[in-house]
Amino acid sequence: MKMNNPVIAVVGATGKVGSTMLSILEQRSFPFKELVLLAHPSEAGTVINFKGKDYVVEALTETSFDRGIDLALFAAGGPVSEKFAPIAASKGCVVVDNSSAWRMDPEVPLVVPEVNPQEIAKHKGIIANPNCSTIQAVVALKPLHDKYKIKRIIYSTYQAVSGSGLNGIYELEEGLKGNDLCKTYAWPIAGNCIPHIDVFLDNAYTKEEMKMVDETKKILGDYSLKITATAVRIPVFYCHSESVNVEFENPVDPEEAKEILKAAPGVIVQDDLPNKQYPTPKAVEGKNEVYVGRIRRDESVENGLNLWVVADNVRKGAALNAVQIAEMLIK
Questions:
Q1: What's the pLDDT tens digit per position in 172-192?
Q2: Of 123, 145, 239, 240, which residue is the catalytic one?
Q3: Which one is catalytic: 93, 123, 132, 239?
């Protein structure tokens, strides 16, 4: 890569995550020599304004990366990434991929910059962005793992419809109007909670739940961790919320844990119960940080701690994390 002035591409530029990537690139004044916007052929010709200049979206093809693109942010889904990320990498482009296609490939780093930035240097052309729910969890867990050593994690997630893209947002909007649709979800989402995200696997867990289990182990670099998860879709537009129950190897003090989290990169502790201060999706929407509250001892187990973790799933859970990786690549 031409590190200081790269030619960059956003693949899936017309989607929710892709458009948020562009917004964050603009907000953070990401340096570039040239910007290329790519999407499905049906989106070709769409005009997007970036930093006061109009860019025409081009159709993604097998020759799109022949022009010397240095860095590509992919936000176009697994099948697109499976096909086009290796093509881009073969042309000398470094891909930061937001899909699940490459996350568990042992040759591909799975990176959260606040947690395991050292893995970036190991890339062979593709770097994977973790699942949105995993990202916010490990940002909160890593500093505690360093101090107390995690033994077991129980994840219970409450995930916004934007995790399903524009279709999920539309289905909730329609449901709130009284028009219940069941195209994106198995059941109406408005006024409901659906314990079913992604497909069910042979072990009766969903793919989403197993992503959290497997990705947490890879990111924290500890495959001995005991982890279980239940993932639930709720009628909220943005921000995933998580109840995270953690058992540690070593004694944990909740007040000390709060101070550790306050000093952790990318974390904001919001935990003032007398004043009813704790993270909520509505308050966290549009924010870049991971918010943590309800930090308290789990009195049912030795060395246990409960956390309530909320983050904007489209920003830190997807677009921002990818841009942060890109920023580290050009340093």
A1: 999 999 999 999 999 999 999
A2: 240
A3: 132
Q: Model-level pTM greater than 0.90? A: yes
Average pLDDT over residues 200-226: 98
* Secondary structure of residue 200 in the 3-state scheme: strand
pLDDT band at 3 (very low <50, low <70, confident <90, very high): low
Rounded to whole angstroms, how far apart are CA atoms 260 and 270? 13
Examine the residue annotation and report whether 145 is marked as an active-site residue of this protein.
no
- What's the token pair of residue 238? 């943005």
CA R_g for the chain:
20
- CB 128, CB 111: distance < 8 Å: yes
Domains in the chain, ordered, with CATH? Answer: 7-129+318-330 (3.40.50.720), 133-313 (3.30.360.10)
- Report the C-alpha gap between 97 and 131 in whole angstroms: 11
Residue found under tokens 């952790």: 264
240 is catalytic: yes
> Tokens in use for 220?
């924290």
